[in-house]
Specification:
- Belongs to the CENP-N/CHL4 family.
- Pfam families: CENP-N.
- This is Centromere protein N.
- It is a single chain.
- The chain is α+β, with helices and mostly antiparallel strands and 336 residues long.
- The chain is globular and about 80 Å long.
- Strands 1, 2, 3, 4, 5, 6, 7, 8 and 9 form a nine-stranded mixed sheet that branches.
- 40% of the residues lie in helices and 19% in strands.
- The protein has twelve helices and nine strands.
- α6 (100-114) packs antiparallel against α7 (170-180) and α9 packs antiparallel against α11.
- It has three domains: 3-76, no CATH class; 83-204, S-adenosylmethionine decarboxylase, CATH 3.60.90; 230-330, Ubiquitin-like (UB roll), CATH 3.10.20.
């Protein structure tokens, strides 16, 4: 067991919570049952790590085996790091028939042609997701397993989820993915967040959420007495209308915890105090980013509380209704 394997194992042990150590090592299976039983998981993390390193040295485990342990932990705990989404476009006629073995061979072959000294490990998860771990080398250097890139792809779907990818290696990975899945191109979906499951559920519609055309149940009648002022009745009706419209757009159930979204806008500048910008013939181009711990829930609250106007603008409703967020909105209404 060389120094790289030791360092990789020690760093991985720091990441794995103490409560998950025993179950993760059991799933790994590289240590015999007798050696696993010799570990006392009631000890400190440092002591357990030292004993585990000694057992791995005794078993002559290598970097390859340690990366297997890392993949087990990462696949079982995917909501870590920052995940970025990509969408495959223009599939070839036989794209739907690509199977796992064919994908593995093609991906490794294409990536090896594009990049020297690259280490690739591919594993199919229990939920049919194909997990890819890529350690990149540079020039004549060995692959850096301490800074591996993780890729998640469900075969026969157009979405790819990527974690820890440098701008230098991004074109190489995307090209290998495009070729191995038999598509013509791939583009960024511009959705990102720490929760891989939320991104997957949103883009692949894997959550039990229905966006109705009408609010699914009638709003409870207000028990306000007839003697209430008319203005209170108007406000109650306006509030009920906002809740109804928010329900029509976002539904009334749990929403995927999306954390950020990007938009590119092309619109007219509307500000009566700024005649120079308002009277411009060319459209005003800008980019907008929304961020929140739960973006869709925040947007629904903005609509129902009146912070955002209703009906909900396509800028906000396109994410849950169309499963996308990167598009151009053109507003040609003059003299607004």
């Amino acid at each position: 067991m060389d120094n790289l394997a030791k360092h990789l194992l020690q760093r991985l042990m720091r990441r794995i919570p103490a409560s998950m150590l025993q179950s993760t090592l059991d799933k790994w299976g590289r240590l015999t049952a007798e050696k696993r039983k010799s570990l006392d998981f009631t000890q400190s993390k440092l002591t357990i790590t030292q004993e585990l390193v000694a057992l791995c040295e005794e078993s002559e485990l290598t970097v390859k085996h340690i990366t297997e342990l890392e993949m087990i932990y990462v696949t079982e705990n995917p909501n870590q790091g920052m995940w970025h989404t990509f969408q495959l476009l223009d599939p070839e006629d036989d794209a739907h028939s690509v199977e796992l073995m064919q994908f593995k061979e093609q991906f490794k072959s294409h990536l090896s042609e594009l990049k020297r000294n690259v280490s690739v490990k591919i594993k199919k998860h229990t939920d049919e997701a194909v997990w890819i771990r890529v350690a990149w080398g540079d020039g004549l250097s060995r692959p850096n397993h301490l800074k591996a890139t993780y890729v998640v792809h469900y075969l026969q779907t157009p979405y790819v989820f990527v974690n820890a990818l440098s701008s230098k290696n991004k074109p190489l990975l995307l090209q290998a993915l495009t070729l191995s899945t038999k598509h013509q191109q791939i583009k960024a979906a511009n959705l990102s967040g720490q929760k891989l499951t939320a991104l997957r559920d949103l883009l692949m519609r894997q959550y039990q959420q229905v966006f109705p055309t009408k609010y699914p149940s009638p709003l409870p009648e207000s028990d306000q007495s007839i003697s209430k002022l008319r203005i209170e009745k108007v406000q109650a009706e306006a509030s009920a209308n906002r809740h109804r419209m928010a329900g029509e757009t976002f539904g009334d159930g749990m929403l995927p915890a999306l954390q950020s979204a990007f938009f590119q806008l092309e619109t007219k500048f509307k500000d009566p105090t700024n005649e120079a910008m308002t009277q411009r013939d060319e459209p005003f181009i800008c980019s907008v980013k929304f961020s929140s711990s739960n973006l869709l829930e925040s947007l629904r609250h903005c609509a129902s509380s009146g912070i955002a106007s209703t009906p909900v603008t396509p800028l906000l409703s396109s994410i849950p209704l169309k499963g996308r967020n990167y598009f151009v909105i053109t507003n040609n209404v003059p003299n607004a």
